[in-house]
Write a structure and sequence with these properties.
Blueprint lengths: L1 E5 L6 E5 H14 L12 H12 L9 E3 L8 E12 L5 E11 L3 E3 L1 H12 L2 E2 L1 H16 L3 E10 H4 L10 E8 H4 L1 H12 L4
Parallel strand pairs: 4-7
Antiparallel strand pairs: 1-2, 3-6, 4-5, 5-8, 8-9
Helix pairs in contact: 1-2, 3-4
């Protein structure tokens, strides 16, 4: 069974070919010196394919927005939103928390949708820098706010488990748009609210 999904990098549809993924996983096990027919490994190619399909399948959602009827003009910040993604360089996970904020214009968004936006772009082959920017760009496009701020803090298993093997090292990235970038008071307020939740 194939699964079709929209990807963050490509607005066109991408198809996950599960039978081909299972065959590729079995080939990888063989290439690594393991026998995919050995007890304990016979179902591993299927489980691997299903795991990657799940991690690369964003859940669809409707970006519910509402008129800013009360004229709210201060920051809205959702902090410590858990996320996980796949490093496109090693296909190893990176995981952490996102802090997402915006200065409303004419519309506000349902708060749960901020977490959905993070997940939408996290479920892809990613680098943290691009993921951070994609979340901010999406909010700009769909809300037309006066400003947007996104801070991501994550641990990358490609850094923790291989290479330099620095377990616990965290990478922090940010994307600031509009008044959150241009107005020093607003920028500092957003960063204070975000960093207050880090660590």
């Amino acid at each position: 069974m194939n699964l079709t999904l929209a990807t963050s990098a490509d607005p066109d549809l991408r198809t996950i070919d599960r039978p081909a993924a299972r065959r590729a996983c079995a080939d990888l096990l063989r290439a690594l010196g393991a026998d995919p027919d050995a007890p304990g490994l016979t179902d591993t190619p299927r489980r691997m394919a299903e795991a990657y399909a799940e991690m690369l399948t964003p859940l669809p959602f409707e970006p519910t927005t509402f008129p800013n009827a009360d004229g709210y003009d201060e920051l809205v910040v959702a902090g410590s939103i858990p996320f996980h993604s796949l490093c496109e360089h090693h296909l190893l996970p990176f995981h952490g928390v996102a802090h997402v904020g915006y200065l409303p214009g004419n519309r506000i968004i349902g708060l749960s949708k901020l977490g959905r936006v993070v997940e939408l772009f996290a479920r892809d082959l990613q680098v943290q820098e691009r993921l951070t920017q994609q979340i901010a760009d999406w909010l700009d496009e769909h809300l037309a706010p006066r400003g947007v701020g996104v801070v991501l803090e994550a641990e990358h298993l490609c850094m923790s488990l291989r290479g330099v093997q620095k377990i616990g090292a965290r990478t922090v990235t940010s994307a600031l748009h509009g008044l959150v970038r241009e107005d020093s008071r607003t920028r500092q307020e957003f960063l204070d609210l975000a960093t207050r939740r880090i660590g």
